[in-house]
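In response to the reviewer comment on reproducibility (Comment 2.3), we provide here a single inverse folding case reported in full, input and output, so that an independent group could reproduce the run without further information from us. The structure tokens appear first.
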């Protein structure tokens, strides 16, 4: 599938800050499952961008704005050709040992309920247990925008039985680590099966390390393993390590964040346009 992405993040400041710095994890890496045909980052103000890689191997752009501005838009757009690998992740060499991803974080800290959830999926083969865990979370949680915030933990989301893709991913990661399985957070994009291209936010899922297979993706928010409808962008121990945009400003007042995202099948677009003209 050839997936076209147009993603804009806009900050509006009550009072123009003197200095802004943002860390952008918005650029996907090439792998066996995805080929980045084109990818651009741009802003609507005079800014400096410095590209590097973090400890997890993510492509990171440090963005600096050193002049007062009341509004900043960061836009990425590009095309990624994807291949369905049945959830398998084949990235070549990894920077870190899988054991690093057994590390607990505040957002993925286990409690008694998560330990019980993990224990109920610990029997049988590791891969079967992870699939069962994904289906259980998908079935027992309700997807509800606004029920949680970015600071809610996996344990809090489980108690609520509600949340968004970030919460589903954190819960899966916490339970998998409790089972002794290295697991990590993934941020990226999803081409929706209903064809609706306009979305409110980027997507998130999890990956778990299975010794016979390597890293395998699990999307508990949708109850499936990632297919060619997914574009993988960044990974981390939790959301904070893979957040698309994260940073701070100095000398300004309150800020408002808005996101506009369009994810579409680039190859289907000409046919849709032709059909509209004929109609």
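Designed residues, in position order:
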């Amino acid at each position: 599938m050839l997936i076209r992405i147009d993603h804009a993040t806009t900050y509006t400041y009550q009072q123009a800050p003197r200095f802004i710095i943002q860390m952008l994890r918005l650029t996907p890496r090439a792998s066996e499952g995805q080929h980045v045909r084109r990818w651009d980052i741009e802003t609507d103000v005079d800014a400096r961008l410095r590209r590097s890689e973090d400890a997890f191997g993510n492509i990171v752009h440090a963005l600096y704005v050193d002049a007062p501005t009341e509004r900043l838009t960061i836009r990425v757009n590009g095309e990624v050709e994807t291949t369905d690998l049945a959830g398998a992740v084949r990235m070549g060499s990894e920077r870190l040992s899988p054991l690093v991803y057994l590390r607990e974080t505040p957002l993925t800290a286990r409690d008694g309920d998560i330990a019980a959830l993990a224990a109920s999926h610990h029997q049988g083969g590791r891969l079967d247990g992870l699939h069962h865990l994904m289906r259980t979370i998908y079935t027992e949680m309700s997807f509800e925008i606004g029920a949680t915030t970015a600071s809610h933990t996996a344990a809090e989301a489980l108690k609520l039985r509600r949340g968004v893709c970030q919460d589903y991913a954190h819960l899966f990661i916490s339970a998998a680590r409790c089972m002794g399985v290295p697991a990590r957070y993934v941020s990226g994009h999803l081409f929706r099966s209903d064809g609706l291209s306009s979305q409110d936010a980027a997507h998130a899922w999890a990956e778990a390390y299975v010794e016979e297979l390597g890293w395998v993706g699990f999307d508990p928010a949708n109850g499936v393993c990632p297919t060619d409808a997914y574009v993988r962008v960044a990974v981390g121990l939790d959301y904070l390590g893979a957040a698309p945009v994260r940073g701070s400003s100095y000398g300004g007042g309150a800020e408002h964040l808005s996101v506009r995202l369009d994810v579409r099948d680039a190859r289907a677009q000409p046919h849709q346009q032709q059909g509209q003209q004929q109609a």
